[in-house]
Amino acid sequence: LMMFIATVLFVGPIHLFVGSTDLSGLRFMGTLAAGGLIALLMAYSFMLSILFQLSLQSLVRNQRGVGSAIQHAWRLVKAGPRRVMRATAIDMALHVMTVILHLALLFALPGSSTSLAGLNTPAANAMTLEEPSSWITLPIFLVTAVLYGVMGCARSGFWTRAYFTLGGISTVEGGPDPG
Question: What is the 3-state secondary structure (H, E, C) of 98-139?
């Protein structure tokens, strides 16, 4: 919801401005403005991702409430922006690695139109152009689900460690200390 609101707030005024003026001669400036808008949206989404992960950790560790967790996450981000950016880079690398492995599984699917093996076959071979049966795709989908589950657990474990490294505290007694 926050990304949708941000997109509407960022894109709306630019779309109205471009639609109400004739900027056909300024294509470079339009491209530059669109690139700046995309960079702004990416920075905003990275910040939301950081706040979301840190506030989840704060919510679990402190058991006070959502507002308090978001404030605590914001304080952690403001206290060490470089450390937070390093943690975000690692988190984004984990996310990109998950997507790359997912795409590799899709390209490895035998007989599919997206398969690398299917791209090199002649068009006369109709067996490779048909969609594969569910007996072939089901294991691929299960492996993909397991992949996203494992990477989700890895990201959660990473943010648990990062929360304490960034200065987060735990008020819950008897919980396991990850350090």
Answer: HHHHHHHHHHHCCCCCCCHHHHCCCCCCHHHHCCCCHHHHHH
Residue 112 neighbours by CB under 8 Å, 6+ apart: 106, 118, 131, 132
Residues 6+ apart with CB under 8 A from 136: 109, 110, 111
CA distance 174 to 98: 34
Our CA angle for 89, 90, 94, nearest 5°, is: 115
Count CB-CB contacts under 10 A for residue 54: 25
> How far is it, in rounded angstroms, from Cα 6 to Cα 101?
30
Q: Print pLDDT tens along the chain (179 aa).
A: 666 776 677 667 766 766 666 655 666 766 777 777 777 777 777 788 888 888 988 888 888 888 888 898 899 889 888 888 888 888 888 888 888 988 887 777 665 555 555 554 555 444 444 555 666 667 778 888 899 999 989 988 898 888 888 887 776 655 555 55
Residues in the chain: 179
For residue 113, give the nearest of 128, 135, 124, 123 by alpha carbon: 128
